[in-house]
Amino acid sequence: MTLLRVRSYLQGGLNLGGHLHRTHNTTHDTTHSSDGMSHFRDLMNSLAVTLHLPYDDIDDRLITTTTSSLGFIPRILHQSWRTKRLEPFQQDWQKTWLDHHPEWTYMFWTDADNRELIAQDFPWFLDVYDNFPLNIQRADCARYFYMLRFGGVYVDLDFESLKALDPLVQNVQVALGYMSTDTTSEIAIPNAFLASIPGHIFWWYVVKRVLTAFAAGQVNKNDAHRITGPVMLREAVVQYRDSCQNNELVIFAAETLYGIDFNWRDDPNKQQLFHVCHAASKEFNSTLCKSFFPNSYAITYWSGDITWMKPK
Prior knowledge:
With 312 residues, this protein is α/β, with parallel strands linked by helices. It has 14 helices and 9 strands. Helix 2 runs parallel beside helix 8, helix 4 (111-121) crosses helix 6 and helix 8 (202-215) crosses helix 10 (230-243).
């Protein structure tokens, strides 16, 4: 994993291969609350037995209901890719995040780093992690464990930063974003943007849903969205909001973070705008695209079909 103090990048250039040191203290003291915990721990215990997981190895300091007294989302920015070798357009978008967040700690994770994180800090999940049939399922889950272990903000590499996130995440405990004005869609809440204080209980609802699917034998190659991605994430949101009295989860509107609505691809009235903002389109023009979203903090260019689908 590359740990980068962004100010050093601005002064001396980006070196993803160097030995860099994290300068923020990401440890938060937490206290237990009975809010929703009894039922949750019973379910996790039963899943641990089913999956032969050493549940007692889970760090109890992380399994907690949090309150605003625990502080703010730490100024840590996470991004991840298969290796340190990025496409030129990914590097350009990556640089916008570094430029707009010079005081943040930047943590870049490769697939190897992700597995090491699970092995070291969440060893009870390692067998599940290794047995996912798709690498995207492992990448999905790693993001949730960034939030549990470190907190901060995770954002996909096909997002361009338009301005600093500090005002947006101030006084927020845990946050996601809608990708569409159709908030009822089962894929309305992607895992392309995540923000949290370390160890917020919401992420244990997410992990619980993944473990539930794994225990039920539902993990397969055909539907990553439903097992580890947006469909699962939305279901976890519903369960968390139904179970916890202290609902601290914020979901930002689509125009705040995502800009272009992926559903516009199939809307005759919006297709032209979608193609202007879609990285895979011959009509892609990021400058023109950004002009349509002057108030957004970020914008995604939906480059997954030219990156994830590309052979390793």
